[in-house]
Amino acid sequence: RHRLLNPNCPFVLNPSPSGNVPIMTIVPSSSCLDYKNEAVRLATYENWPKPDIVTPEDLARAGFYSLKDGDNTKCAFCKGIVRCWEPTDIPDVEHKRHFPQCPFVITVINHRLSGSVSSEPSRSTHESQSRHNIINNVVDGDLDELGIRKHNGPKRPEFGTMEARIRSFSSWSPNLIQTPDLLAQAGFYYEGMGDQVRCFHCDGG
């Protein structure tokens, strides 16, 4: 049915590179994870110590994944590290401030901030550097080698894993013909009403 209703959905055409993260029986080491995938980055924020200061969703969207060491975060593209997050911090803005040459900043964040950067308060370089303890690594390779693709990420990356999609079916009626396992495997998550489901990648339902 997914293929019939949304034949051009990237998940339908090719599930592997579409942002879907399948169930794994063995937890891979961090060196094997593709942190250029937003859903993978978001999954690293389990037990994040500062959810009230800066949200995992905003950090993952800005290209950062958690290093599981306090509030240390690392960019998947330029390898820059930011820590000591404060309530006034906006991940996109901090990423651009400290690593303006990061390819993710150049190709994604700059476009996202183009209408709002002018309203952001400025900070001195000394204040920002001393507070965040920034580590900037040199970026090697072109954008293709870095795995950057514009506008091809999933619409709902929080449902990028089979586990997350299956969890969304907690209130799914057992009287319905379709099973949560089959629907989740097809890329669908449950909206919580009737039999309404949507694809995590194209948002079709």
From TrEMBL:
PROSITE patterns found in the cross-reference section: BIR_REPEAT_2 (PS50143)
Top-rank lineage group of the source organism: Eukaryota
GO BP, one annotated term: negative regulation of apoptotic process
GO cellular component terms given for this protein: cytoplasm; nucleus
A single MF term (Gene Ontology): ubiquitin protein ligase activity
Gene3D superfamilies: Inhibitor Of Apoptosis Protein (2mihbC-IAP-1), Chain A
CDD domains: BIR
A Pfam family annotated for this UniProt entry: BIR
InterPro entries according to UniProt: BIR_rpt, IAP
Full protein name: Inhibitor of apoptosis 2
Species: Cryphalus longus
Encoding gene (name): IAP2
